[in-house]
Amino acid sequence: MKKRKIACYEKHMIETLKTFTDAIMSIIATLMVLEIPVPHLLNGQHYALQETFNALVIFFVSFLVVLSYYFDMTKFFHRIHKISGLHVFLYVIFLMLLSLFPFMTQVNIGTHPTLFTIVYVIYIVVVSRFISMLCQKVYQFNGITLKRNRHSAWDLLLMATLAIVLSFFVGSNGSSFVLLYLPIRSLISSVVFDDENE
Predict the structure, then answer these.
(1) CA 20 – CA 164 distance, rounded (Å)
(2) Interior CA angle at 181 toward 179 and 184, to 5°?
(3) Which of 14, 45, 186, 194 has its Cα between 20 and 30 A from that of 148?
(4) Closest by alpha carbon to 72, among 5, 4, 139?
(5) Average pLDDT per run of 10 along the chain, which is 198 residues long?
(6) What is the distance between the alpha carbons of residues 31 and 66, in angstroms, rounded to a whole number?
(7) Strand, helix or coil for residue 83
(8) What is the distance of C-alpha 120 from the center of its chain?
(9) What Å distances lie between residue 106 and 103, 120, 159, 181, CA to CA?
(10) 124: which residues sit within 8 A by CB, 6+ positions away?
């Protein structure tokens, strides 16, 4: 039996993936907004804002994470000139995982804050590590070497641990603000700074 060769795609497939990524991320952002609950009126005088507030914080975190991925992927597709069929397949898996963000914002409603924080942090870390490793493999495939900040993994681990610990003691409100740090840091590193070629 003849061994099959892994496909290698160039400009057209890269442009197609970039366009598909734009569409997927736009839909994700739209769905996350639709998941924010409208405040309920209590006793005809006051609004119950706690549920809406928690959903808004999770929306902000999720939106900033998705936006950070968007800018990272825009730079990624601009740098590469070829991609293998295996890389395309793994990238589609990344998009599938990313598409779960609206589901995560919906799961927050009525969930125990500590359990939700643990699941949410693990989800963000797994998706982030997955796409980071995939990008490194595609860069190697293209002969591109980038200087990376070696401290960001420890920073991510420290803030994720702090968010989980805070969720035990102060609930989702305290941990939510710590969770905001992660995507803001990622967004700043994606948009403000550039990885330099070695």
Answers:
(1) 34
(2) 120
(3) 14
(4) 139
(5) 84 95 92 78 68 77 87 93 96 95 69 72 86 94 78 65 69 64 73 61
(6) 12
(7) strand
(8) 11
(9) 5, 12, 23, 21
(10) 65, 160, 182
Cα separation of 198 and 196, whole Å?
Answer: 6
What is the rounded distance in angstroms from the CA atom of residue 15 to the CA atom of residue 44? 54
Structure tokens at 35: 């998941």
Q: Which residue has the tokens 């997927």?
A: 24
Residue 198: predicted pLDDT: 42
- 56 - beta bridge partners? none
Tally the residues of the chain.
198
Structural domain boundaries of the chain?
8-191
Q: How far is CA 176 from CA 12, 37, 100, 148, 179, in A?
A: 41, 17, 19, 27, 5
Q: Which two tokens stand for residue 23?
A: 């569409």
